[in-house]
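Dear colleague,

As promised, here are the two records you asked about, laid out in our usual form so they can be pasted straight into your sheet.

NAME FIELD: protein one
SEQUENCE, THEN STRUCTURE:
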Amino acid sequence: MDSKTAIVWFRNDLRLHDNEALVQAMKIADNVVPVYVFDPRVLEGKTRIGFRKTGVFRANFIIESVHDLRNNLRNRGSDLIVRYGPPEEEIFKLAREVGSSWVFCNRERTREEVDVQDALEQNLWTIGQEIFYTRGKMLYYTQDLPFPITQTPDIFTQFRKEVEKVVKVRKPLDTPSAITLYDQTVNDPGRIPKLEDLGLCSSEIPGPNNFPGGESAGLERLQYYLWETDLIRDYRETRNGLLGMDYSSKFSPYLALGCLSPKRIYWEIKKYESERVSNKSTYWLIFELMWRDFFRLIAKKYKEKIFLEGGPKELANPDWIEDPVLFDRWAKGMTGIPFVDANMRELNVTGFMSNRGRQNVASYLVKDLNLNWQMGAEYFESLLVDYDPCSNWGNWNYVAGVGMDPRSDRKFNVIGQGMRYDGQADFIKYWLPELASLDKDVIHDPYKWGNK
C-alpha cells in the first residue's frame, strides 16, 4: 500500500507543543512535510499609509522563530522546508513535488490571511488535494462556546461572564517526540533569509534584543515568569509598570507568532496556583488571555469592518484628519508631552511598548491630535514585535470609540497618567534624557517648565 504524505503549513503557530495541525497530520499520514513560507507581501509590503508592514523588530523575531522551529524539528528526526513567495503558490508547488494527499494548517481569521488560505485551497482542488483546518491561536475552542461566532457578545464583560464559568479550557496537546519526514529527499529544503535579504539591517536594532524569537525562548520565559521568579504572584500590581522586563509577563510576542500556546500558559498557571499560590494576579493573567480570544472572535464576527475608519460601529468621525506633520511628531516622540514621547521613543528603539503606554499614546493621537486612528494602527502594525491583527486593530477600535467599548467617549489624561504611573519620572528621564535635569514635580507637565 502506498504511503500517504501530509504537508503541515506552519503559519502563526511556530511551535511543536499544542500544535493541532501537526498532531492531526501525524495521525493520518505516514510522512509529514513541515513547511514555512516567507510571504513577501507581508514582509516587504506597505500599509495604506505607506509604512512597511513588517518592520525590523518583528522580522527579526520571525527569522529567529523559524530557525528555532527548524532546530526543534531536526532534533526529532524531521526538518523544516522553507520557501519564499506567495504561500498559495509555493505550497501548491511543494504539494505537487512530494505528491502529498493533504495540507494541514491552523486557520487564520483576518482578511489578508483568509484570502491566502482560500487561494491555496482553490489551487489544491485542481490536483485533487484539500486543506484540513485546525485551531491554534485561542484559549477556547469555538465549538465549545455557548454561542456561534456571529452571536459573540459585543461587550467583553458579557463575553467573559458567558464563557469563563461554563467553558473548560482543553488540555494542550503533547509535543511529538519524533516526526517522520517525507521518505524522499525534498530537492531543496530552503534557506532561512537574513534581515538583509528582506531589505532590512541588524544595525536598525540599536539596543539589546529583549525578545529572542522561537518556541524555546517562549517556554523559557514562561518558566522564568512563573517558577523561577514568582513574578506572576504580583502581576496585577505590577502590570502597569514601564521600565524593564519583569513588570509584566512579556508573553505577547510569543503568543502573537504562536511560539507559545495560550492553553499551555493557562494550564501552567493552574499548576502554579495548585502548587504555590492562587490570587487575583494569577487570575488576571488568564483574564488577559480571554481578552485575546474576545478580539479574535470580534474580528471573525465583523470581518473587514475592524480595519475600516468607522470600525464595527460604523461611526467614523468626520472631523478626523490625516495631517502628516502632526503624525510625524507623534510617531517620532516629539509632541512635547513627555509621557507620550517617552512611550513612542521606546517603541521606535525596541519594537515594544507597555499596555499602559499603548492606551495613552493611542488616546492622544485620536482624542487630542484628532488624527485618524488608522494611521496609528498601521504604525503599530509596522513596528510592534508582538503585532497581532485582531488584538492591534481591536484595541485601536476601542480607543477610537468605533469598537466594542461601551464608552465611546473614553479619553486618557496623558499628563495625569504619567504622574500616576511614572511618579518619579524614571521612565520619562530614561527615554528623554534631555529632560533629566527637570524635577519630577514639573517634568510631566510642559506648561510648568517656564517656571523652572
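NAME FIELD: protein two
SEQUENCE, THEN STRUCTURE:
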Amino acid sequence: YLNLYMKITKIKEDISKEIAESFKNSVAIDTEATGLQIPERDKLSLIQICDENQNVFIIQPNKKNFKAPNLISVLENNQLMKIFHYARMDVHFLEFYLKTNVKNYWCTKLMSRLARTFSPNHGLKDLCESLCKVKLDKKVGSSTDWNKDLTEISDKEATYAANDVKYLKTIKDKLQTMLEREKRFDLFLSTM
C-alpha cells in the first residue's frame, strides 16, 4: 500500500532532536550533490529523509562545517534501518562530509541486482515503475543546482527530491520478498 500523501519539510543545517527521536524502525535516505564523482570535488548539497508515515525532511547542511549532531545520531543508530538506493555513493558522501559512520543500511539497487536477474534495469526510476507502478520524472533533478539556497528550491524541485525517498521502503519490502523467494536473501545480507 502506497500512501499518496507526502508532507515535505525543508530544514537548514540539522534536524531537531525531536525529529531524530521520532524515527522508529526505518527511514529512507538519499542525497543530492553537485556531482557524482568524488567528495573532494563534488559537494554534498541536500539530504532527504522519509519516515514510515511519508514525512519527508529535506536538509541543507551547513557547508562551512557540516555539523549535524542530530542527523548523525540517526545515521549511527544501529537499531534504525537506513534504506538507500545506490548506498555506495550516498553513504560515501555522508561519511566524508558529516564525519560519521553510517550503520545498519540496505541498498535497493544491490537488492534489485540480486533479486531481478531477469532485468538489466536497476535504477530508481525503473524500480518505481516496475514495483510501485509510479513513473518518476527525473528531468528536474538532472538540471537542478542543488547547492542554491534552500529557500530558492522550488516546489517542483522539492517534490523531485522527496520522490527519491518516498518509495524506497515499498521497494525494499518487495525486493526482500523476491530475495527470500529466490533464496538469495542471505547473499544480500552478507554483502551489507
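A couple of things worth noting about protein two: The first strand starts at residue 7 and ends at 12. The chain has nine helices and six strands.

Best,
R.
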